[in-house]
Amino acid sequence: MALRIGFDMDGVLADFAAEYHAVEERLFGPVVQTTRAGDPEEEERAEEEEDDAEGERKKKEEGRKKESGAFRRRRDIVWGAIATTPAFWQTLKPTDPGAVRRIHALMLRYRWEVFFITQRPATDGDTVQRQTQRWLVDQGFDLPSVLVVAGSRGAAAGALRLDYHVDDSPRNCIDVKSESGAKPLLITDPDDETTIASARRLGIGTASTIMAALDILEQASLARSQPPLLHRLAKIVGWH
To answer: Any bridge partners for residue 183, and if so which?
Structure first.
């Protein structure tokens, strides 16, 4: 039976942060401190968290509050510009120029069933799904299955009956772990020992790059018929 694998888009395959900061610099000129690009899929969630944190910041000095407010307004302006940019999601550079093409080659070699999953906000022009599909085709993956989902990533992984899911969001990986039978694989900075340790405690695998994640998935495909090897791989990666 073919492996069913899900891939997040931004931060995993597409370099959203770089384009976000390019828009910011175009609007405001070179800045000493840029605003946080974050994950476009978690923008609404991040805003809610910042609203909660605002109450705590009331205890801080007034100057710091004004600076935070200015950053928030600047970020809102950047997001407004993104929303009005036609085909914005087709303009992003890849995190690794060969990653999508390699996914395509592995899909053909091991008969993977691949799904690209995103929760990107809409922009002017085509739908998020069509923009994402065109971007993936340009990167070397023909006939991509793109799912634009709302709500829990775990629910989507469960509905798709995924075996593995690759993401750069710890929260998405926790959702996948708790709400589906898929093994999540978190792409994170290899120097971020705290995140890596926390992920592994929860049974979430980690990889330093998308290429490293694909190495792991290829090993998982090769070891499917050899349980001892698969068990050893799971122990190395952090799955349990």
So the answer is: 164
Residue 71: enclosing H or E segment and its boundaries? helix 62-83
**From first to last of its 240 residues, what are the pLDDT tens digits of the chain?**
789 999 999 999 999 999 999 999 999 998 778 888 877 876 645 544 444 444 444 444 554 555 578 888 999 999 999 999 999 999 999 999 999 999 999 999 999 999 999 999 999 999 999 999 999 999 999 999 999 998 889 999 999 999 999 999 999 999 999 999 999 999 999 999 999 999 999 999 999 999 999 999 999 999 988 999 999 999 999 998
| Residues 76 and 162 occupy one common structural domain | no
Say if residue 207 is in the same domain as residue 104: yes
CATH number for 110: 3.40.50.1000
**Do 181 and 74 lie in a common domain?**
no
Prediction pTM value: 0.89
Tell me: do 139 and 229 sit in the same domain: yes
Domain boundary among 83, 107, 136: 83
Distance CA 35, CA 20 (A): 9
Selection from 132, 118, 108, 140 nearest residue 3 by Cα: 108
Residue-range definition of the domain harbouring residue 132: 4-15+90-237
Do 8 and 23 fall into the same domain?
no
| Cβ atoms 188, 165 nearer than 8 A | no
Side chain identity at 93, as an amino acid letter? K
Residues 117, 148: Cα–Cα separation, whole Å: 6
DSSP for 143-208, please give it: S--EEE--S-HHHHHHHTT-SEEEES-HHHHHHHHHHSS-EEEEE--TT-HHHHHHHHHTT-EEES
How many domains, in total, are found in the chain?
2
